[in-house]
Amino acid sequence: MPRLFYCDQHPIPLPAGHKFPVQKYALLRALLASDGHYRLEPAPFAPPEAIERVHDPQYVRAFLSGALDPRILRQIGFPWSEQLVRRTLASVGGTLAASADALATGFGGNLAGGTHHAFPDRGAGFCVFNDLAVAIRAMGRRAAVIDLDVHQGDGTAAIFAEDQSVFTLSLHSARNFPFQKQRSRIDVALPDGAGDDEYLALLRSVLGPVAEFRPEVLLYQAGVDALAGDRLGRLALSHAGLAERDRTVFAFARGAGLPVVVTLGGGYADPIARTAEAHANTFRAAARILG
């Protein structure tokens, strides 16, 4: 039975009308619990020393102590609180724990994480620390990141720009945040309104170079904000298209014999239940294909 880590037991206090859909995490866990096919466990807190292998120690300590520059907090998009610190450490810790599971069993899942906009010295776009990068450094393996969030994985791309042991692939909306893009190993920028057929064809066309890189582990940033009608996305994938996207990634990994770490990424549909269902479908596909 696959094990999945969660951190929604650490709520983030946000002002009324804030656009971050914190409620989706508990909705997702409830959906997967009702399936009865997963072991759901609270995520452990990531140790600061693991985070400092990626992030500037001064930035890490300032965030943990509540002394972060207000300009960086505005870029992150969350007001600082002790609850945010706990939630952030659990989100990164969930990806670390999922990575250990992936290396041991072939699959690990975190019902949070995918915080790909965080750079070594700052956060942005609802991302404080880059859990993908922290996990890659902790594993010490040749790694590939397939980032299918609607927003480019700019922080991840920048962190590994000079690292020949990490392959970064990002499919994203061309005209969406971040407006200053970084250079991944492969970037696929999609036009507004791109739908299932165009998206899936482009995804399949770039999996060959990932295989040629011969990674030892695959990290999948499985954001579902490419869903049609997402408030922060500009693409038009259907639920069926997203499900086929997930099946394509997991079938690729199975065929290549790659352990897979799945992180949640973004999703901002209205109603948010549409996003929770799309996220749940990702983990359902993983359970079916990867076992």
Using only CA atoms, what is the Rg? 17 Å
Query: Structural class, judged by helices and strands?
Result: alpha/beta
Low-confidence stretches: none
- The name of the CATH architecture is 3-Layer(aba) Sandwich
Beta-strand content estimate: 5-15%
The count of β-strands is 8
Distance between the termini: 8 Å
Main beta sheet: strand number and arrangement? Answer: 8 strands, parallel
List the secondary-structure elements in sequence, H or E. Answer: EHEHHHHEHEHEEHHEHEH
Q: What is the fold-level CATH name, i.e. the topology?
A: Arginase, Chain A
Number of domains: 1
CATH superfamily: Histone deacetylase domain
Number of separate helices: 11
Provide the descriptors you would attach to this structure in a database record:
291 residues, Arginase, Chain A, 11 helices, 8 strands
Write structural notes for this entry.
This protein has 291 residues and is an alpha/beta fold. It has a single domain, classed as Histone deacetylase domain (Arginase, Chain A, 3-Layer(aba) Sandwich), CATH 3.40.800. Helices cover 43% and strands 13% of the residues. It is built from eleven helices and eight strands. It has helices at 24-35, 48-51, 57-65, 70-76, 82-105, 131-139, 154-159, 196-205, 207-213, 239-256, 272-290, and strands at residues 3-6, 39-42, 107-110, 143-147, 166-173, 186-190, 217-221, 260-263.
